[in-house]
Amino acid sequence: MYTLGIDVHKDESHVVVLDDTDEIHDEVRVQNANLDEIAKQYAGSKAAIEATSNYYTIYDTLNEHLDVVVADPNQTKALGVVEAKNDRLDAKLLAQLRSAGMIAESYVPSKELRERRALVRGRKQLVEKRTDFKNQVHAVLDQQGVSYEWDPFSQDGREILAGEDLSLGTVARTLIESYLSVIDELDEQIEQLEELIQERAASLEETQLLMSIPGVSFYSSLLITSELGDIDRFDRDKEVVSYAGLDPVVRESGDSRTEGRISKRGSPRLRSILVQCVKVAVHTCEDEYLTRFFERIKRRKNYSIAIVATARKLLVSIYHMLDRKEVYDPPGVSA
Q: Please, which residues bridge with residue 256 across strands?
């Protein structure tokens, strides 16, 4: 049985093949488009690659013929005896760790989950771009010394911007018109993605369950479930909290034990959307269960800590809802 360590780059990869005695049997640099040939040659063998920006396609290619795992690059390097300084050593280290069963594996989502992630992440990117251009409009108005309390992006605000009563130079007016044109185009693209997001979320049991939570929408439910992945891979709620990076960093010394800030491991998108959902649930929907918890923590600590703690509370509820396939029904809440 052979073990392959594959150091993946954008267009090509360095492959080191170890035999049963962990000696190098073969070593080759190959175009990524030809990795399937290597996989077929060593079909049935173990293999390891690192999680990179383009690893999904490579993983799918290799996984048809090899028992392949994706290594967490930070944890894997920490296990190395010496720091790998080139592609050959990187590939050899991956092969050795895979052979020894010491690979710190990264979760590989299914193709369906990847599509969901791409959809919600794409929408988020467009919204962020739109915000950038809106900020540019505000910046031009500020530079021109325009004081305003009206919304430049509302119908009334657009009419004011286009009117002659507003004192703007030719360049400033041209820039604003250009920015508004881009904003309009982004609005259309975002709307198209939101229609697809709503359609996808409405068709899935897990997202429908999450939408029974006050403050959770089509978009947020799809984002949360796509970032979490298969809920069955978690054995308990603490694992989900740790995966989301909402667990406190614990420092122990002798008999003392202190909890600090959250670890912030895992997906920042997941943490961000949970915080957004909590703010809506507490401030807009006034959900009794989450609001009561939030207010109790805020009295003891402060607003920011209370929001994060409530986001963690919400995530625990989400885990149990998905695990048990139950709608939102928190304890101790009056009907």
A: 253
